[in-house]
Amino acid sequence: MVLSLIHKSTPLILSVDGVSKSFDGFKAINDLSFYLEEGELRTVIGPNGAGKSTFMDLITARTRPDEGQITLHLEEGHDVDLRRVREHQVSQLGIGRKFQNPTVYASHSVYDNLLLSLNNNRGIWASLRFKEQKRDREKIFEVMKAIRLQDVKGTLAGALSHGQKQWLEIGMLLAQDPKIMLVDEPAAGMSDEETDRTGELLLGLAGKHSLIVIEHDMEFVRQIASRVTVLHQGSVLKEGDFDTVRSDEKVVEVYLGRQARKH
Ligand SMILES: Nc1ncnc2c1ncn2[C@@H]1O[C@H](COP(=O)(O)OP(=O)(O)O)[C@@H](O)[C@H]1O
Ligand SMILES: [Mg+2]
User: Which atom of ligand 1 approaches the CA of 24 most closely?
Assistant: First the structure.
């Protein structure tokens, strides 16, 4: 009921309804509901153990929920029950995930990493590939431009800086044209300048893609955030714009206050 009041104009791309997941009797996710709009860039924050990674595992069918529903809303009212798809089908449905540590092919060039990623998803269409080479090349150049790695396209991925590797991996997701991109701590270990560029990159992707970004660095969250979801003990503790969340007493108590004390 509440949902129809909140989301009037922009259609949803993903609905998570009342999902719970236990590990050995411990409720890592507890009656979690979460709704992502098409083209939205959502930031998810929360203390260690809040269930952020498990949440992404559930969306990518790596983990099955014990209860609740997870639905991908495709065009023209086609809904996909993500509880019933296999993990390897998720990327074909248009959900891409970037893990925290970059997993690029170190001994391949930037260009070839993107080409491999582009071909990865093709499956039965691979036979059409030779006809598509020009379009592939255009796509790869478009992605390299977005991640600003055109000038190092021949460089082996293993020789890139940490930041560049992270961008390349975002590019590898982009090559597959995902509808939803799940990005786990993209700015971890980055310099301030790299962090800033990462924020610009993600902001540039919103609209064309829907994104869920897990992040700890509150300066970075401030840079990219429109709507922020705070997870705590497997549930949504607070959801709202950056300032609303930043000044919420409960959020300060369970997360931001502790974070400040760490530094
Ligand atoms: N496969 C698993 N088996 C057992 N416990 C798990 C498993 N995955 C996550 N957990 C537990 O679930 C809780 C949430 O973990 P996680 O989703 O990784 O939190 P976050 O990413 O927010 O730090 C933690 O207490 C963690 O130990
Ligand atoms: Mg985690």
Answer: 4
Query: How many domains is the chain partitioned into structurally?
Result: 1
Q: What CATH number should be reported for the domain holding residue 153?
A: 3.40.50.300
Q: What is the pTM of this model?
A: 0.90
| 159 DSSP 8-state letter | G
Within a domain: 181 = yes
Host domain of residue 43: 10-262
CB of 50 closer than 6 angstroms to any ligand 1 atom = yes
**Residue 145: Cβ within 10 Å count:** 11
Ligand 1, residues 53, 59, 182, 184: which to mutate, most atoms within 8 A of Cβ?
Answer: 53
Tens-digit pLDDT profile for the chain (263 aa)? 556 555 557 899 999 999 999 999 999 999 999 999 999 999 999 999 999 999 999 999 999 999 999 999 998 789 999 999 999 899 999 999 988 777 899 999 999 999 988 877 665 555 555 566 788 899 999 999 999 999 999 999 999 999 999 999 999 999 999 999 999 999 999 999 999 999 999 999 999 999 999 998 999 999 998 899 999 999 999 999 999 999 999 999 998 887 765 54
Question: How far does the centroid of ligand 1 lie from the alpha carbon of residue 23, in Å?
Answer: 8
Say if residue 79 is exposed, middle or buried (CB neighbours under 10 Å; 0-12, 13-18, 19+).
exposed
